[in-house]
Design a protein that fits this description.
Elements: H1 3-36, E1 55-61, H2 69-76, H3 79-82, E2 85-91, H4 95-103, E3 109-113, H5 114-122, E4 128-132, E5 140-143, E6 157-160, H6 166-177, E7 186-189, H7 194-202, E8 208-211, H8 215-221, E9 225-229, E10 240-244, H9 246-251, H10 253-272, H11 274-285, H12 290-303, H13 313-325, H14 341-348, H15 351-356
Parallel strand pairs: 1-2, 1-3, 6-7
Antiparallel strand pairs: 3-10, 4-10, 5-8, 5-9
Helix pairs in contact: 2-10, 2-11, 5-13, 8-12, 10-11, 10-14, 11-12
Amino acid sequence: MNRSNSCRQFRFWRAFDDRASIAIVAALMIVTSGAMAPVGVMANPYLARPGETAVPVTAATCATSGGFLHFYTALDNALFDKYGLKVTHASLRGGPNALAALSSDQVQFVYCAGDATLPGMATGMDAKLVASVHVGLPWVLLARKDIKRVEDLKGKSVAVSRTGDLDFRVLKVLLKKFNLTEEDVKLRSMGASQPEKYQAMALDVVQATPVGPPLDVRGKKDGFNVIYNLNDLGLPIIFSSVHTNSKMLKERPALVQKFVAAVAEAIHFAEKNPDKAKTSIAQAFKLNDPDALQSAYDTFAKAVINRRMLVPANAVVEAVQIAREAGTNIRKKPEELFDNAFVENLEKSGFLRDIWGGAVPGQ
């Protein structure tokens, strides 16, 4: 090999080595920059891709409730849209009606108190809890001006949604605690939402009704009395929860995951944007009372919030047992009524750490 050829080969391999070195350094920089990036920067795999067509789904609420603050907020602030979901809101009256619509796939999601639906689910209806936003019972028993104590309800009527619904079952526990019967106090089934039951009390059609914020504050301003804090009964209540059916779980689990992720973001959004959350409650209740709206916000965005949305298994077991003791024909085991996989995925993927910028507060 002559010197000229040897020099050309040397320059070739030297250039190759330089290019290889640059490539290796570049690769290391990419890896290093990824390692140094804030935890969770690429941790939201559930967002819609650019140009992705939104998927239409129908989500029903089973009442008008301050407890549905996060669902209202997600709708009003296009949070579902971010996840590629075009959500149509259907307002249904009562857990049984909502479950029937879900079981027949007329709606794909139901946003309702878990304890209002678990007895029906346990009888075999096609529904499963996939997230619980609130745990606890944020209701009080509101009564007309002449009623000061629970004992004063004797000979009076109390409004409930329907026989067997959550408010009906809670009131039965309350009456038993105070040694009262349904002959002493009539539980009047009205098939109505909290605002409608409140109006019935205001008109003296009934003399008391269980309410949650913001109606508790409105009631005090209207001169009514809070005669019992129903959370003091100590019942293991699963409140605002996301439900779906077996068809969605089997055929469209990715959509279920997106819906759950959007609700999880709504929890963060409401906490960081209290005015927007209160506006959503104001629109739902057609209410413009700052004190009442603040009460609803403090209760549902802070006091009973379950930021990780895990469905408490022990509370499901107790709810099923209570239903069995009440004569419900139980056909499903408690573990068949909920699926925490979707909320657990939010933790595993780094999604929760991403939206909260670190550990989920208060957990």
